[in-house]
């Protein structure tokens, strides 16, 4: 019975045929075996049928472990020939998402954004594969009927909003040829595709011959974007952060001699995200601008992917643009893929109120946010969207996940919400649109 259990455990760990194969080294399969009393053995397992199990340890000695005393057995995946998306499950219950570079006896090496993170072997419980981009696209396409124009249109829209521009372009050409009567839908998809950034466009912006287009009037500065990222930083799921050496020295000199404060040598060895945690704990906010956070933390990334780029900008922004701002609410639509503009839209959303002075975002009870009501079918909403020509519900049947995304995003954001003027040093209103905004002076982001 135990032999069967171990075999199943090994097969489960290695995964299906589509997963990267486990690296087989001379001497057997690299494994981590945990004894029931908590002892861990790192080595090579050669014979699953043996009783007891015989392990060749890293020091070239051999040890035996009775099968009945085996708590867990994890097969190491070795070095990846190509980085593979995965989720690393940690001993403390946390998770790390990224591209697996190596899973060996020295630990797990993970590529997270532009940086590489190493996780100690003893901190890892398991590694679960995530589908690659190609696999996810194939899986989604396999679930729809190619003869259904509505389903194919939803698939192409998903490709566009997830940034798979080349695949979307190819599918859109096929869509136009297969459904010649769906000219209006084809036109909408073409306009949506044209608004998405391309890798070639990013490369072209680096060429001296082509100047980078100016950001819209009122866009936030890079320093302000960085401040918001610091405020929303998730230390339980740290994203890339860069701490200059000069900042560590300045920080040390300021707090030199305080009880329990680490010395300069310890500060220099602190991982960047742990140094940022200490900096925030000491509330040295005047030093925040020296911190560099190149990518959005999880909460802001969730806002970008599932709300701002998916429906807030293409649907709400189609009518509620800053130059017109109907009802007193407008979004910046020019260069909205840039962080400086996207963060501006986040602040505009936080500041926005309805005609009865209710904030669009309810931080205390996210499910009661007016934003959700305004996006529903007016017949099913407690506070429906005003009757205007061209309005169509955002959260119709089949998009229940979009409502969940809004609630989960609000729950991920830092609370209580900061006072933007004092905490982030952002003056408000900021370069108002042509039509003066009608929002109240009090920030909707501070519900108290």
List keywords for this structure.
448 residues, alpha+beta, SH3 type barrels, five-stranded antiparallel sheet, globular, disordered N terminus, disordered C terminus
How would you explain this protein's 3D organization?
The protein is built from 15 helices and 10 strands. By secondary structure, the protein is of the alpha+beta class. The protein folds into 5 domains: 1-76, Roll (SH3 type barrels); 77-130, SH3 type barrels, CATH 2.30.30; 134-200; 241-290, no CATH class; 298-423, no CATH class. The strands form 2 sheets. Strands 4-3-2-1-5 form a 5-stranded antiparallel beta sheet. A hairpin with a 4-residue loop joins strand 6 (78-90) and strand 7. Helix 3 runs parallel beside helix 5 (183-194), helix 4 (165-178) runs antiparallel to helix 5 (183-194) and helix 11 crosses helix 14. The model is unreliable at 1-26, 199-213 and 432-448 (pLDDT under 50).
Query: Given the helix and strand composition, which structural class is it?
Result: alpha+beta
Give helix and strand order, one letter per element, not per position: HEEEEEEEEEEHHHHHHHHHHHHHH
Q: Characterize the overall form.
A: globular
The main β sheet shows up as: 5 strands, antiparallel
Q: Please give the share of residues in helix.
A: 25-40%
Strand arrangement, largest sheet? 4-3-2-1-5
Mean pLDDT across all amino acids: 78
Number of helices: 15
End-to-end C-alpha gap? 60 Å
Counting structural domains, the number is 5
Uncertain ranges: 1-26, 199-213, 432-448
Q: How many individual β-strands?
A: 10
């Amino acid at each position: 019975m135990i032999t069967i259990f171990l075999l199943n455990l090994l097969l489960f760990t290695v995964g299906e045929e589509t997963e990267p194969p486990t690296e087989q080294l001379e001497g057997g399969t690299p494994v981590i075996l945990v004894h029931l009393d908590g002892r861990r053995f790192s080595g090579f397992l050669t014979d699953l049928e043996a009783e007891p199990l015989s392990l060749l340890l890293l020091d070239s000695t051999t040890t035996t472990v009775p099968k009945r005393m085996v708590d867990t057995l994890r097969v190491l995946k070795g070095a990846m020939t190509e980085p593979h998306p995965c989720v690393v499950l940690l001993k403390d219950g946390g998770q790390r998402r990224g591209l697996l570079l190596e899973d060996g006896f020295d630990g797990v090496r993970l590529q997270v954004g532009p940086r590489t993170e190493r996780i100690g072997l003893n901190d890892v419980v398991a590694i679960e594969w995530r589908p690659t981009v190609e696999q996810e696209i194939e899986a989604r396409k396999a679930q729809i009927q190619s003869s259904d124009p509505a389903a194919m249109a939803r698939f192409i829209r998903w490709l566009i909003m997830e940034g798979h521009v080349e695949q979307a372009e190819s599918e859109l050409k096929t869509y136009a040829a297969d459904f010649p009567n769906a000219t209006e839908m084809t036109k909408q998809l073409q306009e949506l595709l044209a608004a998405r950034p391309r890798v070639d466009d990013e490369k072209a912006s680096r060429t001296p011959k082509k100047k980078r287009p100016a950001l819209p009037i009122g866009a936030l500065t890079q320093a302000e974007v960085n401040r918001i990222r610091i405020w929303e930083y998730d230390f339980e799921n740290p994203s890339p952060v860069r701490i200059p050496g000069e900042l560590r020295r300045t920080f040390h000199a300021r707090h030199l001699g305080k009880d329990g404060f680490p010395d300069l040598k310890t500060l220099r060895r602190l991982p960047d995200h742990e140094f940022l945690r200490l900096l925030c704990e000491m509330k040295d906010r005047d030093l925040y601008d020296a911190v560099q956070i190149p990518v959005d933390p999880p909460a802001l990334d969730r806002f970008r992917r599932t709300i701002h780029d998916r429906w807030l900008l293409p649907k709400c922004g189609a009518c509620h643009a800053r130059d017109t701002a109907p009802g007193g609410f407008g979004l910046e639509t020019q260069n909205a893929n840039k962080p400086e503009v996207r963060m501006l839209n986040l602040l505009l959303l936080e500041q926005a109120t309805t005609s009865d002075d209710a904030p669009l975002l309810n931080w205390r009870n996210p499910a009661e946010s007016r934003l959700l009501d305004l996006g529903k079918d007016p017949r099913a909403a407690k506070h429906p969207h005003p009757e205007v020509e061209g309005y169509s519900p955002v959260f119709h049947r089949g998009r229940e996940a979009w409502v969940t995304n809004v609630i989960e995003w609000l729950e991920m954001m830092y609370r209580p919400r900061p006072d933007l003027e004092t905490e982030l040093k952002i003056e408000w209103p900021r370069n108002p649109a042509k039509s003066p905004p009608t929002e109240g002076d009090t920030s909707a982001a501070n519900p108290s």
